[in-house]
Each structure stands twice: as C-alpha cells, then as structure tokens.
Amino acid sequence: MSVVLAVLLVGSVPGTIAAVPSVATAGPSGSAPQDRTTQTAATNGSALETADPAQVIRINVTESGNAVWTIESRFRLSDRSETDAFLEYGEEIADGEREGVYDRSMFDPHVEAAADATDREMTIRGAGWNEPRLRSPDGSEPTVGVLSYSFTWTEFAAVDGTRIHVGDAFQGADGPWLSALVAGQRLVIQAPSNHGFHDYNLPVSS
Q1: What percent of the chain has pLDDT over 70?
Q2: How far apart are the C-alpha atoms of 33 and 100, rounded to whole Å?
Q3: In angstroms, what CA-CA distances link 156 with 41, 85, 117, 121, 205?
C-alpha cells in the first residue's frame, strides 16, 4: 500500500521527483551551495562551457529519514578533446589528486544548525567525489559531463509512522539556510520508491 511523503520544502511539484525552478538568490546565508567548478574545469587553458542546468542538487530521501545528497556540476562537451580533458580532470578530483570545490566543511554548519532546530541527532557520513560521468540527453554521443559530490545526511527527514516530513532540516536559528536558488541551479527531491507527495503547493522565496 502506498504511503505518503509530506514535502514541506519551498516549492515543489507532484510526481516521483520534485524539481524546484531557479529563482533569485536570497544571499549567501539563504542560497544553495554555489557552483565554482566551472572556474577550474578547463581544457587548453579555457573553461568548459556549462550545461543547462549547470548544477543539480539531488536529495534522495530514504524510508529511515536519512537523505543521500548528490551535487552535480554539469558541462557541455563539444568534441573528443573536451571529453578527454573533462574525464582526466574528473578522475583526478575523484582520486584526490586535485582539490575539489566541495567538502564536508561547507555543509557541517548547516547540519549542526538543523540538528539544533529539529532536536534530532544529525551527521554527515560517506562524503566524497564520485567518478566523472558522461550523459547523452538525446541518446546520441555523450554531450554532457557530470562531476558529482555525494554524502548521506542522517535523520534529515522526520519519520512519523507512514509519513516522512521533509523541510525542517532547512531551518536554522536565523531562518532557512537554503531558501533560494540562483540561475542555472536545480533542486530535485526524490521520495522512497513506495511513497508519493503531499502538501507540495508551497511558496518559493524570491
């Protein structure tokens, strides 16, 4: 029997996956993690062109209330030379040979603030860079290169019987720490396989 995922996050749409459209940033304290990978992913001295969207933040909520976060930086690859350069760069980041843009120190303060606001014990585990991936949106040759950083945020959502409430972890003592996205960013929330969405018509800050 299907149960319900009650999404209490700013802006979402019904379905297996909810995507929040890009909106104006509310400032450093209220916006999503900024994507600076484009300034370092380069071939022949030139930065690779970003794809649309340039960054996707995926939050895969599990039945236990934990959530797997994956932050993707996406690049358009126009030829074999750019593809090879992208793969080499991505593998060096994944292997620890280059310093990546993200690390858990960027998220630890938000986890601590959310734990205080929700009175749930939270932590980050399994943080690290993944192997670079090539994607082919239209089924032809790969045209998008994806660099991704992932971690598990424990007790991110509140579990209440057959309901999983998502949203309170975005609150801190000074208000929401993620209240807006910038152009080129997308936030995607995915429910457990046997869950649906409820309470999804909520406003997005602008």
Answers
A1: 70
A2: 14
A3: 31, 36, 12, 9, 21
For residue 75, the SS3 value is strand
Q: Is pLDDT larger for residue 14 or for residue 166?
A: 166
- How far the first Cα of the chain sits from its last, in Å, is 38
Rounded to 5 degrees, φ, ψ at 76 are: -85, 130
Q: Which stretch of DSSP H or E encloses residue 81?
A: helix 80-94
d(CA 192, CA 62): 5
Q: 160 forms bridges with which residues in the sheet?
A: 163
Contact 8, 167 (CB under 8 A): yes
Rounded (5°) CA angle 124-188-180? 85
